[in-house]
Write a structure and sequence with these properties.
Elements (H helix, E strand, L loop, with lengths): L1 E2 L18 H12 L3 E6 L5 E7 L8 E8 L5 H17 L4 E2 L12 E4 L6 E6 L15 H18 L10 E2 L6 H8 L5 H18 L8 E4 L8 E3 L11 E4 L6 E4 L1 H11 L3 H6 L5 H10 L4 H28 L4 H18 L4 H12 L8 H11 L11 E2 L19 H11 L4 E3 L19 E4 L2 E5 L3 E4 L4 E6 L2 E5 L3 E9 L9 E3 L4 E5 L4 E8 L8 E3 L3 H5 L2 E2 L22 H10 L19 E5 L2 E4 L4 E4 L12 H13 L9 H12 L7 E5 L2 H16 L4 E4 L8 H5 L18 E4 L19 H15 L6 E5 L14 H11 L3 E5 L24 E4 L10 E5 L1 H10 L10 H16 L2 H22 L3 E7 L2 E6 L10 H13 L2 E2 L1 E3 L5 E4 L7 H18 L4
Parallel strand pairs: 5-11, 13-14, 28-38, 30-31, 30-32, 32-33, 33-34
Antiparallel strand pairs: 1-8, 2-3, 3-4, 4-7, 6-7, 9-12, 10-11, 14-16, 15-24, 16-23, 17-22, 18-19, 18-21, 19-20, 20-23, 23-25, 26-27, 27-28, 29-35, 34-35, 36-37, 37-40, 39-40
Helix pairs in contact: 2-3, 3-6, 3-8, 4-5, 4-9, 5-9, 6-9, 9-10, 9-11, 16-23, 17-23, 18-22, 20-21, 24-26, 25-26
The chain binds pyridoxal-5'-phosphate.
């Protein structure tokens, strides 16, 4: 609605609802537009909108148009402006759908002045955009958030330079006039919150005022929100739909351009992702906007105060609307569920802090000279000492601290322990570092984004220390905090964990005056803040850290200690983002992909312990995907074995040393007779490649039968038998002539399905028939290769008797049976050490890797002496580092750990608990089609329909991204990428299982289509 200028006393102007109904709409449409249709009212706030549905029409296809009855208070110039702007957006953005006014055969708009119980009003036929909005989606994926920012920028570019007399009035929804609107509506705000909203709006308006002259203006849509951006209406899942529709231009107005983005950002604040991660979760939208329409520094600085103003307007106008229109359930539920949430989230972090975050993300300088920051820096550099702690230990609590090895970072008392160790060693004090993202003590198994970045330092003295005023100022005590405010800076001493109370009284003090005395056992927090800075928490989220740190300075120099290196803020754009840019656009081949792309930034993971991974931001993630690290990350026995051997000798396996013999003997002993001869290699690809070559050489033939949809490696031969289209989309068409594939024996979704009661024995019979057919053509196969438990499909067991029948057929014709145990071998299945044991067979060649070295490159091929000997006749084998002394030491340590820690048994018991948890999810979430697998080799298959088994590929991708936000690393697998691959380190415990299942439950719940 366009209303008089903000200063006018005629605000507020909440319009009474129109008294028009479906019958009225139907009659209007028949009389004025000559259409005989049904009309169905759409909820709306002040205009009245009706879906016009052809008689007998069903669903979106039956909708002819939308009838928009505009409130009589809206002038015809405004209505014309709305229609013209819609046309202009449609013209400039041909890939978008826009709710333009329909035109008759002569090109005239379908717009009429019609009678209504509320007087004459304008009625228009508007293009209907099917697809729905995302306003009710609890969670918005970052790519959707980014798209909203991008669309705001594109609409602004489309409207740039355009003007119309119908856009000149000031809108009360415009954050530019937010303070006036809030003041006008304040009487309707709930009493308990009125002062807060008013104060907030005043403070935000004050922040914007000095920037006003620097903010470009134009006509903007001003309501590009989750209500007015429409999802594409293409067939397929909602998760794959893209926001491509723009509706409702009724808030069109001339204002600061950045108000457009502010409105869009504010609507994001009631969704779960933002509520969970804080305001920095809107960054994808800001970045995407900036990429299309770069924001000037003044726009960056005005953005969050305008978001805050918009939030204030929403709650103020919303409260008024509800009062005026008491029966409007739509308005009152919106107010409760969305608008107050938006307000609370907009003010959850001070506007200065969010502005600092935005500046860091866009590398945008402050628009106006930041005097406070300059004065703070000067005060920090030129002050008297607070205490002389020269030579005290400065604790390193970040991800790369050596003291955090051995999982020490997971100890909730890690900081205390490290400090105590330094004091015990005689250091005069232990002092933490400003600006550091602490990993020490960061919570594991937590879905909350932890506050890890230190905004000050903590001092743990080893002997009594007097803390003195570094400058003249005024002391104020607030609880256990003592603040000394000087001319240019504020010193905050947090004495909560100190035995004695401070002895400085409130009032003025001179430089050098004693403020407090602390001694051994005390912990005092020391912060240096800008004079007007808000209270700054001691630890803040890494994503918000650039904003908080900008309000602070490093107190270390005031304690006689070196300042922390001026490192970019952890998690900030210039730190890990820069490394990622080097990875993405630098020297690595593009095909060496990384997990998490697009609007989801991969965390930088630099540490691990057992089934935990730690990021450089100091967050601990649960690792559900690392089957390579079978005995857990950074296992001390494995690390020690590698270090010891590296310090002694590492060379090639042609030398004579114990490790190569011992390891070969230990691996051979794990396999049944007659598998007694071992080749040591570097990887799974090498292992399967060598297995195939052994078969070719031993049989003197090359034809090889493989199972479809499998992955066996990237080398020439292992790739030749790999037909997973997830790894290579052209896999099936590009097989060499010696490779023959048989149906993937997938009993869940293949042609023969267990749940349907099909005869799943048919898979084996078909594979046998393929072998026989080859033999009949005079090309009996040299080998049959398959995973002994069907990994790439997401951990399905093979049909009963499958390997027995197929192995027998291959052997009948002199071929060899190869079992790829790279994924499933070494105890992961729990009930058996090897996958082939489940089929009651013994292969001729077994390929194993991954777990063998717990991530160190070592693998093995085990076969019979006879086969190995044949290879000697025709092939050559030497892998310089295959079975090197270090590899052998590592692999031997892994075997010891597997045995000593009972990890196969743990895979069985913990795996059973996990499976049970996943099955309980299947009861509650229709998206879960099946739980596959055994032990700690499980797959959660997601389908859109349990009958058609339509793969929920896009949902799986969204789920994995959401799980990362909730603290879990899990990834999709299978040719359809719709199965969560669940293959954690074998040391996974019950607490981790319960946490994982809980996080999945939450993420699956958010994914459910809105009701
Ligand atoms: C079943 C299977 N075989 C072989 C390989 C290849 O192993 P690597 O990556 O160690 O070369 C993989 C890798 O994922 C695999 O899953």
């Amino acid at each position: 609605m366009s209303v008089p200028p903000a200063e006018s006393s005629t605000w507020p102007q909440e319009l009474p609802p129109l008294h028009v109904d479906d019958d009225w709409a139907r009659a209007v449409v028949r009389e004025h537009f000559g259409l005989d249709v049904e009309a169905r009212s759409l909820g709306s706030q002040q205009d009245a909108n009706f879906l016009l549905v052809a008689a007998g029409g069903e669903g979106a296809a039956g909708v002819v148009a939308v009838l928009k009855a505009t409130h009589p208070a809206i002038s015809s110039a405004e209505v014309e402006a709305h229609d013209e702007a819609a046309d202009r957006i449609a013209e400039h953005c041909p890939d978008l759908r826009v709710a333009t006014v329909l035109r008759d055969a002569a090109g005239a708009p379908q717009r009429r002045l019609v009678d209504s119980p509320d007087g004459p009003l304008t009625a228009r036929l508007i293009r209907y955009l099917p697809g729905g909005t995302v306003v009710d989606d609890g969670y918005l994926h970052p790519s959707r958030v980014a798209r909203m920012g991008e669309l705001a920028a594109r609409v602004d570019l489309a409207l740039a330079g355009w003007s119309h007399p119908g856009t000149e009035g000031a809108s009360e929804w415009d954050p530019r006039h937010g303070l006036a609107a809030v003041e006008a509506h304040a009487p309707w705000l709930p009493e308990g919150r009125r002062a807060q909203v008013l104060d907030t709006a005043r403070a935000a308006a004050e922040r914007v005022a000095p920037l006003a002259g620097l903010l470009p203006e134009q006509v903007v849509h001003l309501d590009l929100t989750d209500d007015n951006l429409v999802l594409s209406d293409t067939p397929g899942p909602r998760a794959a739909a893209v926001l491509d529709g723009v509706i409702d231009l009724s808030d069109l107005t001339r204002t600061w351009v950045v108000c457009e983005l502010a409105v869009t950002l504010s609507c994001l604040l009631h969704h779960d992702g933002v509520l969970h991660a804080g305001p920095s979760a809107v960054l994808p939208a800001v970045r995407a906007h900036h990429a299309v329409r770069p924001l000037a520094p003044a726009e960056v600085d005005a953005l969050w105060p305008l978001v805050v103003l918009r939030a204030c307007v929403l709650v103020a106008c919303g409260s008024h609307q509800v009062a005026v229109d008491g029966g409007n359930d739509y308005a009152s539920s919106r107010l409760e569920q969305n608008e107050w949430r938006i307000f609370d989230q907009a003010v959850a972090v001070p506007a200065d802090v969010v502005t600092g975050v935005l500046r860091a993300a866009l590398a945008s300088p402050a628009a106006l000279p930041d005097e406070a920051a300059g004065r703070l820096r000067a005060a920090a550099a030129g002050a008297d000492p607070v205490a002389d702690l020269t030579g005290a230990a400065q604790l390193d609590l970040a991800w790369d601290a050596d003291d955090l090895d051995g999982g020490a970072f997971l100890d909730p008392r890690a900081v205390e322990e490290l400090a105590a160790a330094r004091l015990d060693a005689g250091d005069r004090a232990a002092v933490t570092r400003w600006g550091e993202a602490r990993l020490a003590g960061s919570p594991a198994l937590s879905s909350e984004v932890p506050s890890t970045v230190a905004t000050g330092v903590e001092v743990r003295p080893g002997h009594p220390v007097v803390l003195r005023a570094p400058w003249e100022g005024s002391v104020r005590r607030r609880g256990s905090r003592l603040e000394l405010t000087g001319r240019d800076a504020r010193l905050v001493l947090d004495l909560d964990r100190c035995e004695r109370t401070p002895f400085a009284e409130d009032g003025p003090v001179g430089a050098g005056r004693a403020l407090a005395e602390v001694s051994e056992g005390d912990v005092v927090g020391v912060q240096l803040l800008a004079v007007d800075a808000p209270d700054v928490p001691a630890l803040v989220r890494a994503s918000d850290a650039p904003g908080w740190l900008a309000l602070t300075a490093d107190p270390a120099p005031l304690l006689g200690l070196p300042a922390a290196p001026a490192a970019p803020a952890p998690g900030g754009a210039a730190d890990d983002g820069e490394l990622l840019a080097r990875r993405d656009a630098g020297v690595l081949a593009e095909v060496q992909e990384h997990y998490y792309t697009g609007a989801v930034r991969p965390p930088r993971v630099e540490r691990g312990w057992r089934h935990h991974l730690a990021t450089t931001d100091g967050r601990v993630l649960l690792d559900v995907v690392n089957n390579v690290t079978a005995v857990g990350h950074a296992h001390p026995r494995v690390a020690a074995a590698a270090a010891r051997q590296l310090a002694r000798l590492n060379t090639n396996s042609r030398f004579h040393y114990a490790g190569v013999v011992e390891l070969s003997e230990r691996i051979a002993a794990l396999l049944p007779d007659p598998l007694d001869t071992v080749f040591l290699v570097n990887s799974g690809s090498e292992a399967t490649d060598l297995a195939i070559r052994l078969a070719h050489v031993a049989t003197g033939r090359t034809d090889t039968v493989a199972v479809r949809e499998a992955y066996h490696g990237w080398t020439l031969a292992s790739d030749a038998v790999s037909t997973s289209v997830a790894d290579n989309p052209a896999a099936l068409e590009s097989r060499p002539a010696w490779v023959h594939t048989v149906e993937a024996p997938n009993t869940y979704r293949g042609p023969h399905r267990a749940a349907r009661g099909d005869d799943v024995g048919q898979y084996a019979r078909d594979a046998v028939a393929a072998v026989e057919a080859l033999a009949a053509q005079g090309r009996p196969p040299a080998a049959f290769i398959a995973e002994a438990f069907y990994g790439n499909a997401g951990g399905l067991p093979l049909p009963p008797g499958y390997l027995r029948e197929v192995y027998a057929a291959v052997r009948r014709h002199g071929g060899l049976a190869i079992a790829d145990e790279v994924q499933v071998g070494y105890g992961r299945l729990g009930s058996t050490l090897w996958g082939f044991e489940q089929q009651d067979v013994v292969p001729d060649v077994v390929a194993v890797a991954k777990s063998v070295g717990n991530g160190h490159p070592v693998g093995a091929v085990v076969t019979t002496r006879a086969v190995a000997d044949r290879y000697r006749d025709a092939g050559y084998f030497f892998a310089s580092t295959g079975g090197s002394p270090v590899s052998c030491a590592v692999a031997l340590a892994v075997l010891d750990v597997l045995r000593d820690e009972g990890l196969q048994e743990n895979a069985r018991t913990t795996g059973a608990r996990l499976r049970e948890g996943l099955e309980s999810l299947a009861q509650r979430h229709p998206l879960v089609g099946a739980v596959h697998g055994e032990g700690l080799y499980l797959g959660l298959e997601l389908v859109r329909d349990r009958t058609t088994l339509e793969p929920a590929r896009e949902e799986t991708a969204v789920l994995c991204d959401r799980m990362l936000e909730l603290g879990v690393v899990v990834q999709p697998t299978s040719d359809r990428q719709n199965v969560l691959k669940i293959k954690p380190p074998l040391c996974l415990d019950a607490a981790a299982v319960d946490f994982f299942v809980g996080a999945l439950d939450r993420a699956l719940g958010e994914l459910a289509p809105p009701s």
